[in-house]
Amino acid sequence: MSDAIDLTVMYAMHDALRRELAHLDRVTTAADRDPRQVLATAPGWMLFKKALRAHHTAEDDALWPSLRQNLAGRPKDLVLLEVMEAEHAVIAPVIQAIDGALTDSDADSLRLGHLADALTRGLAGHLEHEEEAALPLVRQVLTAEQWAHFSRVQARRIDQDAPLLLPWLLDGADEPTAQRLLARLPASAYAACTARWIPAYALLDRWSPGITA
Prior knowledge:
Elements (H helix, E strand, L loop, with lengths): L7 H22 L5 H7 L1 H28 L4 H29 L5 H33 L2 H16 L2 H9 L4 H9 L3 H16 L11
Helix pairs in contact: 1-3, 1-5, 2-4, 3-4, 3-6, 4-5, 7-9
């Protein structure tokens, strides 16, 4: 079934999340500014959270259930799905704790740095684990219809923020990846993305204080 499963969007999302984790690390370790003030209004932090929420909830609701159905009778592989869900579950509270630290006058930059480190370790480890263990199962057992369903669910959850999240996803992608991502768009979204959304995104200073995205 691997020929029917195109993981371009999956890997592009993972690469974009890793890219933003690197930005988060730079913000929370900078000596010349208060990271709490930056993250409180930085568009990059908002975009990161929106993209991660859309991606993980789509996996929880539309990818893991299909895999679980197709892996019936394979207990070791089913345990892996439980681990994937557990890894998701521990990431969200860390993000909530970071947001809490941004509004807590008693929280200092050191605590924020520790939380950012925990987020980076947890999410980066999860992405690597998913790529090494779960995505091979996706290629092996998922049907094209099930993969298309997951893709539609994820696209719907991104749709409201598409003018920002689509250029965000394309940011830094190599040319073949960018072309494959753009080719998936309806004609109207392709025109809007190339003519308006990408140029507007290019002007956005994501990881500096600004208007909440």
